[in-house]
Amino acid sequence: YASFYLGRIEQGDDDPNSAFLDYVRSTQSNPYALVALSIKDNTGAGGYGQMTDDSQPLNPNAVWDALTDVNQGDWDQQIDDFAAIMSSRPDTKFMVRIGYEVSLLLFAYNGNQYVVDWLNQQAGQGINVFDDPDAVANMDRQAYIDAYNYIANRIRNVNGVTNVDFVYHPVRGYNDTRWLYPGTQFVDWVAFSIFNNDVCVEVNGTFNCQGQSIDPQLQQSIDFAKQNGHEIMIAEAAAQAPAAASTSGFIDYLDRLHDVVVDNDVRVLAYINSDWPSKGWGPEWGDSRVEVNSTVRNHWLSVYGSGSRYIHAGGAPPPPPPPGNALESLNFESGIEDWEQITSPNDTHDWTITSSGTPSNNTGPASASQGSSFAFLETSSCCANSSGDNARLRSPFVSGTNRAVTFDYHMYGGNIGTLHLDVQVSGGSWQTSVWSQSGNQGNSWQSASVDLSSFSGDLRVRFRAVAAGG
After folding, report:
1. Is domain 333-466 in CATH 2.60.120.200, yes or no?
2. Which residues of 250-289 are buried (b: 16+ CB within 10 A; e: fewer)?
3. Any idea where the domains of the chain sit in the sequence?
C-alpha cells in the first residue's frame, strides 16, 4: 500500500517505510510486489480535504482536484520518489495499481454538492450518470485517464524504471470499468477485487446476485478487459462475514473464488489472509485467515496448494543483482572464503562471524538475514568503541561488465556509525563511499543493491564499518 501524497510505500500499521517490501525481497525467490498507489483514501494528506469524512474539511471533488494537479505536474516529486523505490530494488517485479478500485463517482465527479446528494438529485431527474458520463455536467472521466497515463509515463519513461507493470483496477461495475479505461499504452494488467458480493455470497444480510456464481457486472467488466487484450488479476480477495465464520460458508467462498480464476484464466491472485476485525474493520469483515479452521486449511491446500495451478514461492537466497556479471557470492556459512580481512595500515578491528547474535544488549540482529551466519563489528565498550575504529572486508578482483553488488545490512542500537562500500578498479586507487549508510536503521535487516556498471576493468569492493564512538 502506498499513499500517493507521501511518495512512500507503506504496509499496514508500519510507519511509512519499505520494511515489509524488503522482508519479501529477503525471503522470496523472484519477488513480486503488488502495490496499491492510493489517490482516493487520504486526500487530506495532499491538502485536498475529504469527499466523505466529516472529521476533515469536506471537499466534494477532492479526488478530481488531486488528479488535475497530477496532470499539471504538481506531484512530480512524489512520483519520482516512487520510481526511486522501485529502481533501487531491481530484483523485485512491481505491479502498481494506479488509483486502486477506481469508480466514476470518486474519480470523475467535480461538482460542489456532496456526491451522494448530487447522485440522488440526478436520479430524481431520470438521469443515470453512469450510462454516458460525458453527457452529464460535473463528470470528467478524462482527469483520471490522463493522470493514470501521466504517472505511468513518468515512472517508466522519464525515470527509466524497467521492473514495473502498471495495473488498471476499477470497481466491478461495467460502466466504471469501460468509462475510466486508460487505454492500452500503459495498462499491462486489469485487476478486480473479489469479496463476498462479487461472487454472490451474503455480506451480513445483503446480496447483489443471489443464486448466481459471479456478479454479472463483474463478468462483463472482465470480458471487456480481455477483449482489449489484457491479462486478468484478482488484486484483492478475502472471505467476509458471515461466510468467514462458518466452515461451509468459508469453503463455499473459496470454491467460488477458484471458479472465477479458472473460468477467466486469471493469472494473478492476491488473497488477504487477515483477521480484519482485530485491525479495526467493521462488522461486514471477518477473520479471513485460512489456517485458523483446520477443515478450511485442508481445503485451501487441496485447491490452492502444491500441485494446483497456483505457483508457490519458498525460501530463497539473497536477491540477485541486475542482469550482468555478479560479484563473488558470500554468505559467511563457510567463513569469509576468498574475501580478506584487511589488517593494515588503517584497519583497527576485524569483522566477527557468528550465528548466535551480537554480545551486547539492544544492538545488532538476533539472526542472519539468510542462512545461519553473518558478520558484524562490535562497537560496545569491549571493542571498537572509539570514534574512527573500523573493520574492512575486501572481495577478490572480478571481471565483466554491467556489474552490481547486492547485500543485506543491519544497523541497530545507540551510537551506530557508518557502513561504507568502496570500489577499486585494478591499477587504480580506492573510490570511497560509493554507497554508505549511517546511524540507527531499526531492528530489521535492510537490503541494498549498488550499480557498478560505470566502472570498467577488473574491480573489487570493500565493506568498511566505521564506529561513531561512545
Report:
1. yes
2. bbbbbebbbebbeebebebbbbeebebeeeeeeebbbbbb
3. 2-304, 333-466
**Distance from C-alpha of 363 to C-alpha of 373, rounded to nearest angstrom:** 16
Cell of 274: 487477515
Nearest in space to 461 (alpha carbons), one of 358, 359, 327: 327
DSSP string, 408-420: EE---STT--EEE
Relative orientation angle of helices 294-304 and 247-263, to the nearest 10 degrees: 10
Cis peptide before 345 (omega within 30 of 0): yes
Q: CB count, 10 Å around CB of 308?
A: 12
Confidence of residue 316 (pLDDT cuts 50, 70, 90): very low
Find the mean pLDDT for residues 241-252.
95
pLDDT of the residue at 305 = 82
User: Which ranges constitute the DSSP H helices of 289-346?
Assistant: 294-304
Q: What is the pTM of this model?
A: 0.67
The CATH code for residues 2-304 is 3.20.20.80
Task: Name the least confident of 133-142, 310-319, 395-404.
Answer: 310-319
Q: What's the average model confidence in pLDDT over 89-94? A: 91
